[in-house]
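A student in our group prepared the protein record below, which I am reviewing. What it holds is a sequence and that sequence's fold in token form. My question to you is simply how this chain folds and whether the tokens agree. Do not assume that whoever made the record got everything right. I have pasted the whole thing underneath without changing anything:
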Amino acid sequence: MSESADGVGDVSALVRVLEDTFTKLRRLIESTEQIISTVSGVEKHRGAAREDVREHAVVRAFKPNNAAPSVESTVTCRDAGAVIDAGRGRVARNALVVMLSQLLVWIAGAAPFVILPRFLGDANIGKLTFAFGFTGMFVAFVLLGANTFVTREVARDASTAAHLTFNAIVARIPAVLLSCALIAAFVILLGYPASTRYVVFIATAIMLVTTTSTILGAALQGMERMTLTSALNVLEKVLTAAVGLSLIAFAGKGLVSWSLAVLGIDIIIFLILSTYVLRVVGHSFEVDLATCRRIIRSGAPFLVYNISLLIYGGIDVTMLSVMTRDAVVGWYGVAYRFIGIPGVIPFAVITALLPLMSRTRGEEFSALARRSLDILILVTVPIGVGLVVGAGPLIHVMRYPAAFDHSIILIRILALHVPLVAISMVAGTVLVAQDREGAWMRVGILAAILNPAVNLFAIPYFEHVYGDGAIGASITTVVTECFVVTAGILLVEHGTFARSNMITALRCLAASSVMIPVMLLTMPFGLIVMAAAGGGAYGVSAVAVGAISVGELRRLPSLVFARPIADRATG
């Protein structure tokens, strides 16, 4: 009994430390912005709207004009370079906020991430993976593509935020009812056991709450107010970690109790977020059928693509559940949990990138796209290589049951698609910002057809020959992502990306090759030493081959904390 009490006390202490750490980091960022804003030498252009500043500083600066420059054009041309750097700074700063929160999310989620496989075993982890993976396939349908549409439209006109947000929530009611009916029919008609059905039904409720929160967060993202949503994400994981440890490890509860606790936490997060949105965005509780129809019509390309993406990303779990055993789904779920951690990085970048790119065009747009792609390649390529080499030590350091050794080969295969996902996310963001989501939608449809078609043969083959159908699902995932990346790059307007992006990728691959022998030599010293040595070797090699320069590293703080001219103009 005392041991359990000590464990709960340790968890409570961890919760307090994580919350305090994030609060301090957030205050540090906000204080730094205020200080830099105060001492900056750029005069505020009072009375100028954000869109006017962008048009004057960017469009006029790059528009050919043979006439002698006026006083106004001289000022705006002088500010153009600052706007480009400030735009990059906005992306860097917002991405930093998101990445800091996601780092704390990973730390907070580490406890249940380690505890659940130890106490539940591979079969129960398989049930949990299926429940959340299956219901996750309905997320896009329930959202109707409204979240991406709301973000883009609010970024262009913040005054529409309240009206669009409320009607986006109303417009999805029919989709919510239909999704609930389909989920219930699937698990009942296919004869899933009661324990699995209960978890699926709770996961459905969680999905409905979190998708509503996503709509609210989309409005805040369009206004580039991402600090609270990031903080709430951390809070959710902290509470889930504490509850998960208490229920599973100490109270001896099972999947249903854990799932109900997660549902309660998500409801609390939703209530906090709703209160903040009402205060910042305002409220407009008028149901406008014309606006609902516009949201559904305009969000249709996002809806179709997101449904395709979720089918492509989630159908493998459902197919594994039907064609193999719960244990195989559990091995695959654990591998995907590790592979999902690096997804923090591209997610943070595109979250910060979309609002800014939706308002920019021309050379500034292309410069942001190319630089964002370079940064993600620079970071995700070594992570993929590191996961390939370190998959074994990573599983063993977690002290999972021996059955989870099957996850090692899955991590090594799926690690190959870590940089591919980053590239496809940038390409998709560029296409959405260029109002070409229709083309990206078609890519998603083809991917959603390709993935299950290949899995239909790959899963049974590898299950029969190797006793692990998840190997086939992992290979299919990488093949499908290769298709998505190729199509995305071909669809982006000519000149957006450049030959320099390919050169950066080749240099990063060359630098990553140095990691392999270093990590293998240091493997006997443990995972942390191996990862640190490999990361250090990559950093030195990246500078040596020119993937990144020392000067760029020195300029990083100024990009992170620089305040865009548009913000100063509207201050």
